[in-house]
Design goal:
Length: 368
Amino acid sequence: MKTAVVILNWNTRDFLGKFLPPLLDSMPEGAEVIVADSASDDGSRELLASRFPQVRTILLDQNYGFTGGYNRAFEAVCAMEGGEEMEYFVLINSDIEVSKGWLEPLVSWMDTHKDCAACAPKLHSYFEKDSFEYAGAAGGHLDRFGYPFCRGRVMKKVEKDCGQYDSPSDVFWATGACLMVRRSAYSGIGGLDARFFAHMEEIDLCWRLQLEGWRICVVPESLVWHVGGGTLPNDSPWKLKLNFRNNLLMLQNNLALTYSLEEIRELTPDKAASKAIRRAASTIRFRMLLDGMSALVYLLTGKKACFKAVWEAHREFRAMGRKPQEEQVREYASTHRTIAIPALYPGWIVSESLLRGDGIFEHLRKRI
């Protein structure tokens, strides 16, 4: 088994029944579909046993979220018969529709680009087949304050796919809805950050991989369609909380190390680490201020649950956060000084999107 395609399922029985058959039909030689079930109670396990007995399953004892579930699934696949041969680990949502031939371009890309840790297909909407989908579109970027956006999706604006992103490209992050990761890279950085539970975890993973010198790519020859909101609806206050909280955890994980790669060009390791930590703390404080402004808008527009979600996100971040240590940052900068600095978008995508309207996509294509 060279490629393990793993669905992490939690109470999405209907999606399994609909999308698992074409996924199974699409598997080339050397690839296998495996389902890891997070203690579903909606009949998912019974469906797998009765309708798909040929599919190997990993039965988790509880819902560990996207992060904990996939980390456990990775360990279980590695321990399976044939798992020692696995080179590529594919995370794929149960609400993804695939066609024959979607997997081969990803495998080929990874085979021929040994410096690439992770790659993804273009992500289209299941409901509007020729339009990009919010969760990943044609690959993602991150602005200077940690706001994610995609080629083909900025804020709530989504483009139709007219071939404008049909060349393979390096990106800052690739969607966790359908993500191929090199086994050695995934294990090398310890997998997903389990604290996140769900949301933003793939951006954090891709950022940490880049900090170790890996590339992240989109391979547009591969295309899948995503329903979206299969496990958590888009208007869920809990989902909002996870996004705000995890964004701050992601910045804390990666900003100081990223800044240290800039500062080490001009400063000694001690001074570079100290300045990088100060810069990171300042950026996070400003991002929290911007979050507070968002929370105020929620409150003034009567969305009290959303206001509470932002407040709880900040409270949990303070409890869960791990501030970077100067010794750690100094050691990293000293040993990784030749690594390319992960390319954060230098602007603020929120203001640029508001000012430029639908012209934001053309603007970004000229800058990225």
